[in-house]
Amino acid sequence: EQDIRQSGAVDVPALLKSLAGVEIYQNGGIGKQSSTFLRGTNSSHVLVLLDGVRINSATAGTTQIDQLMLDQIARIEVVRGNVSSLYGSEAIGGVIQIFTKRGKGVPSFNGSIGAGSYNTQRAAAGFGGEAGSTVFNVQVSKYKTDGVSAVNSRIVPTVNPDKDGYDNASVSADVRQAFNDAHSLSASLFDSNATNQTDNSFGSSTDANSSKSRISKAAVTSENRFSADWLSKVQLSQGIDDIQNYLNG
């Protein structure tokens, strides 16, 4: 988590670009569609897990990691290379697992705000910690920017030269109840909703292209150690990767 803060990155693609063996291609500025390539494999051959839950798209075959803001993220683990024997066909290139923030220590508040060029505004707040055998955390964040034109109109005259902004609101929540050293029950939620302005090279210079994206995850998990040699984990979960595209409203 400290490495993420010190990186200065805002979203997941900007952070992953710094890792060896990882290539990120993005169609414009922050929030715009991105593709992830691990060790030279296809972008559809990278499995993305959010707290252990698959959120890969059933249609495009890729995950909208460009909609994940780092204000919600505690750490990211990357496995490079083919691990499809464990995770299925999406993991030919590797696996990226993203972990949201969890509560720890005495319950406390946290918050941050920031502003930058292109009318960029950023704010995050949360409350979490440990209360007896219960661990909990709630985190909310907001990111908004006017952005820049995703396509240079001097190179492609048919695109709209207006700025392509981005607006994201995210929330994550987690609670874990330990009944004793061997048994616990937890529930978690993550939801990212964003409005994105984009460009289309094959349209008109007056077209207004936009999209609404949602990445969501909900899970209930029971962990039980029945003996020194038997640890059981049962999880019921749902992952959502949804995008809707709009032309002139």
Account of the protein in words:
With 249 residues, the chain is mainly beta. Helices cover 6% and strands 55% of the residues. It has helices spanning 2-7, 12-16, 84-87; strands spanning 22-26, 34-38, 46-50, 53-54, 73-80, 94-100, 108-116, 120-131, 134-148, 164-178, 183-198, 209-227, 230-247. The protein starts with a helix and ends with a strand.
Ordered list of secondary-structure elements with their pairings:
Elements: H1 2-7, H2 12-16, E1 22-26, E2 34-38, E3 46-50, E4 53-54, E5 73-80, H3 84-87, E6 94-100, E7 108-116, E8 120-131, E9 134-148, E10 164-178, E11 183-198, E12 209-227, E13 230-247
Parallel strand pairs: 3-6
Antiparallel strand pairs: 1-2, 3-4, 5-6, 7-8, 8-9, 9-10, 10-11, 11-12, 12-13
